[in-house]
Write a structure and sequence with these properties.
The structure is a homodimer.
Chain A (H helix, E strand, L loop, with lengths): L3 H15 L8 E2 L1 H8 L3 H14 L2 E4 L3 E4 L4 H25 L2 H19 L3 H19 L2 H21 L5 H17 L3 H33 L1
Antiparallel strand pairs in A: 1-3, 2-3
The structure holds a DNA duplex (30 and 30 nucleotides).
Chain lengths: ~220, ~220
DNA sequence: GTCAATAGCCTTGTATACAAGAATTAGAAT
DNA sequence: ATTCTAATTCTTGTATACAAGGCTATTGAC
């Protein structure tokens, strides 16, 4: 029973935030969480600090931790940066990928094809993560891999929304095809452009979604 | 006396790491640090966790915290990513800068010129930070500003070494001039390219430096 | 009736005590 | 003498106790 408690708490709370069990703006009471998970406040505090470092919550002195709501604009900005980083990863991957990278990328790509054809958005969501991880790995830049993985994780909940949009899965898969071609043919510039576009479009989609939602909210209100 | 203790500890220890008072690989004893700063272990632990989140130290379960030595290759990778992010910031700045951004950028640029002419590397080091911050701010992307600032901070110690290199300050200032021209003329692509190059060259310089050092070490050993 | 001020409670921040695992040292055996 | 094992000690991980600041509710005054 090592430091795993903190890790477990961190994952549980993070999951709770991502799945909206803890809503944005909600105050996270240390004692309440401690009771809920059957531990003392100490590990809870440490888990909260980690989440604060990730950016999922905000800790104001003497006023506790609240779940951060990034806001549509901020999320769009995050997609913009993600697009740039993924583009870089793609560019490096095109230049540096090994046979093993190639195999892994094609395997993930095949999985995506399968779940896209089955129209299974949950599975596609998962396979899509593998696909992007394969690209990060092929970049052979340890630091870039870390940065991409962290941001990818951070954007997870907002990406998930989008696969529900009509035809998005098929479109996504077609974009993947172009990305794979560019990387495996060693065309760094094309790989960068394709990946950047592939991610940026998600930011756009997200904006559209928000616009639609706030419009309907305005109509309702 | 709020949560400031943790912040203070974090800054002090971070500073200690950056200034090599705590050498890479050194083990950071919680109790020792607590005594040294006249506090209990609790805030020390929390400060250490924050540093761990930043990436300056590594905490292994039940085995304490050690100062991370990124290693030359990892540092080079970090400069690579920084180059990309700064390029992005420059690109956005070229498209989005306001009159206020323009004023701030020119002011920082003028300061750099002054300290470069005075051959004052300490001041130039500081003014250079202002210059880059001005670019980040002009990008008007809050998330990008945060990411750039964090990585810039993380690379601070390695950048500092380089200004000592002969003529680096003058060269750096000339590059700044090209960057300013590109941004203020609204040429996003040029701004991106210039900034990317400006940062990437620092990674190269760092590699050269390391190569030189390890060579002389090999000769000595 | 409403607003402001004060008091009490509730939550966070810090310290200390307790538990458990890892490292080191000492002793014994080969 | 060297190596392996065991025990002790030292450090980390967790819990609880104590301190301090903010929030809320209640009461009084306008």
């Amino acid at each position: 029973m090592a430091e795993n408690i903190v890790q477990r708490l961190r994952d549980e709370i993070e999951n709770g935030i991502v799945t909206n069990q803890f809503s944005p703006g909600e105050r996270l009471d240390e004692m309440h969480l401690a009771k809920q998970f059957g531990v003392s406040r100490t590990p809870v505090r440490e888990a909260l600090m980690q989440l604060s470092a990730i950016g999922l919550i905000e800790i104001r002195p003497r006023r506790g931790a609240v779940v951060v709501e990034p806001g549509p604009h901020r999320i769009y900005e995050m997609f913009e940066v993600m697009a740039e980083l993924e583009g870089m990863a793609g560019s490096l991957a095109a230049r540096r990928h090994t046979d093993a990278d190639r195999t892994a990328l094609l395997a993930a790509h095949a999985k995506c094809e399968k779940s896209a054809e089955a129209d299974d958005s949950d599975t596609y969501y998962y396979d899509n993560e593998l696909f992007h991880q394969a690209i990060y790995a092929a970049s052979h830049s340890g630091f870039l891999i870390e940065q991409c993985t962290a941001l990818h994780r951070r954007l997870r909940p907002y990406r998930r929304l989008q696969l529900r949009v009509r035809n998005r899965m098929k479109t996504s898969f077609n974009e993947h095809q172009a990305i794979v071609d560019a990387i495996l043919s060693g065309d760094a510039d094309a790989a960068r452009a394709q990946l950047r576009q592939h991610i940026a479009v998600q930011g756009d989609r997200f904006s559209d979604l928000v616009a639609t939602l706030s419009e309907s909210k305005a109509l309702l209100g």
